[in-house]
């Protein structure tokens, strides 16, 4: 007769289940990709088309019409603004897709969750992985464009970009777990996520320079602005991909490497922990609520 402690039905071991169920995660990622592009003519090519159209619209509106691109008539603009813009877009697109899909993943897989038991964390995690699959071709295009513009990054710059991607991935996963669980009980969570994603692009220096923020807000509010992990992630991508294509005179935010990257990693890790705690507390009644 077993004397082991009783466990609440429907509750797993948290993120540890992801490692134990790697094969199931791979199947879910494959399923999501097949379902998403079923009947699509372009298929995975949409990973190129969507950010490409987004880039062209922003570049014309901001770089050309509003004068953020450096030119003979506008020497105060950003050099290689196209690289600056696209390096931010690829990262923010990864975040918005990962969080948006992860927050809907539990409700979207309600039929499967009600039929069989498997670790619930697999669903939001699979959404993040699918976003990573879409991120790869975009980063390849960015690297090719950078190479054509004389890109010669240092190992420190590449390490900073890797840290920035980790920061954004941890944040997206944590928020995806949090809102994915809450969305089962309160469908208003989807609308809240949509608002956050709408704000995300403008609340970080994807389209504009951090210097504009500092000059308008001052040092105190600029430091508050820097507490946003997405801001730090975007700045690391600018540091790694855009800065090496310039003459090196452009500045990076002060203390980016020594202070803001560690702070952003800590904040993103805390969000991941919070999301996991909330998810584990609520997952026991997912099948009943769905």
From TrEMBL:
InterPro entries: ABC2_TM (IPR013525), ABC2_TM_bact-type (IPR047817). One of its GO terms (biological process) is lipopolysaccharide transport. Keywords: Cell inner membrane, Cell membrane, Membrane, Transmembrane, Transmembrane helix, Transport. The chain crosses the membrane at residues 41-61, 81-102, 122-151, 157-180, 192-211, 259-279. It is found in: Cell inner membrane; Cell membrane. GO terms for molecular function: ABC-type transporter activity. Pfam families: ABC2_membrane. Residues 42-282 form the ABC transmembrane type-2 domain. Its main location: membrane. GO terms for cellular component: plasma membrane. It is a multi-pass membrane protein. Belongs to the ABC-2 integral membrane protein family. This is Transport permease protein. It comes from Arthrobacter sunyaminii.
């Amino acid at each position: 007769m077993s004397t082991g402690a009783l466990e609440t039905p429907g509750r797993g071991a948290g993120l540890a289940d992801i490692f134990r169920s790697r094969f199931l995660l791979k199947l879910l990622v494959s399923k999501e990709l097949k379902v998403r592009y079923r009947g699509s003519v372009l298929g995975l090519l949409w990973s190129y088309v969507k950010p490409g159209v987004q880039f062209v619209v922003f570049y014309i509106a901001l770089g050309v019409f509003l004068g953020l691109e450096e030119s003979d008539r506008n020497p105060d603009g950003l050099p290689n603004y196209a690289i600056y813009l696209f390096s931010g877009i690829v990262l923010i697109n990864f975040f918005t897709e990962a969080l948006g899909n992860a927050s809907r993943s539990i409700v979207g897989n309600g039929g499967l969750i009600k039929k069989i038991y498997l670790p619930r964390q697999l669903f939001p995690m699979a959404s993040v992985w699918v976003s990573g699959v879409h991120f790869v071709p975009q980063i390849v295009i960015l690297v090719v464009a950078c190479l054509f513009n004389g890109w010669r990054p240092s190992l420190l710059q590449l390490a900073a970009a890797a840290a920035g991607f980790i920061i954004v991935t941890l944040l997206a996963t944590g928020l995806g777990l949090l809102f994915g669980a809450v969305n089962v009980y309160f469908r208003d969570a989807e609308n809240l996520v949509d608002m956050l994603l709408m704000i995300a692009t403008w609340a970080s220096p994807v389209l504009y320079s951090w210097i504009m923020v500092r000059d308008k807000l001052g040092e105190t509010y600029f430091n508050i602005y820097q507490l946003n992990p997405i801001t730090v992630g975007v700045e690391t991508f600018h540091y790694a991909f855009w800065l090496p294509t310039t003459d090196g005179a452009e500045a990076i935010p002060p203390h980016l490497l020594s202070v803001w990257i560690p702070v952003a990693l800590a904040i993103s890790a805390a969000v991941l922990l919070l999301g996991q705690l909330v998810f584990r507390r609520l997952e026991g009644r997912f099948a009943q609520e769905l």
